[in-house]
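Its record is set out here:
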Amino acid sequence: MSVILGIDTTSKMCEVSLKIGREYKVIMINEGLVHSEKTLPLIEQILTENNLTLRDLNKIVVNIGPGSFTGIRVGVSVARAIAQVLNIKVYGVVGLDVLMYKFLRINKVNKNKIVVLQDALRGEFYSATYSSKGRRITDYSILKKENIDPINKVFIEASGSSGKYLIKFIDFENLKPTHYQDIKPFYIRKTAAEESKACHS
């Protein structure tokens, strides 16, 4: 029986999910940015509740961003560590793509394009545009909402749980696994350290 672990720590919520055979299980907490303390205990909890251990895992899927810099690093680090110890496959997925996929699974689309907007704070949004079939047709970017052309598009202002869709997405995209050393955080915005370096260079 295949067991896949999903990890999403990119937002205020810390979420872990499992696919056990054809069943999906999800646990999440919203206690602020405490992911470094909570992610591993949540993984242990969801495994224990389903009479499983880490050794039962076959694959890991992790949301690599965009989102909270600290949260992203926590999720990627945990996924790398488990994949290395167990020598199992790991998949890094971009959260905007998963949000688009989740939207299409739940809603009927009558526009040609889908724009995903994820709160990036500072009055900005992480964004990408997709076809009505779910294929990305623009680069990932940071946009102000008022600068996005609304004609013939449907908007998703996304937040909250990725749930089982984080795991389902790897089949939708037919993604290939990545070596644990090659899973890297995906930041659209520069980190504070990078911005400071740029200002002083």
The chain is about 30% helix and 25% strand. Confidence is low (pLDDT under 50) at residues 192-201. The radius of gyration is 17 Å. Residues 3-94+161-200 form a domain with the Nucleotidyltransferase; domain 5 fold (CATH 3.30.420.40).
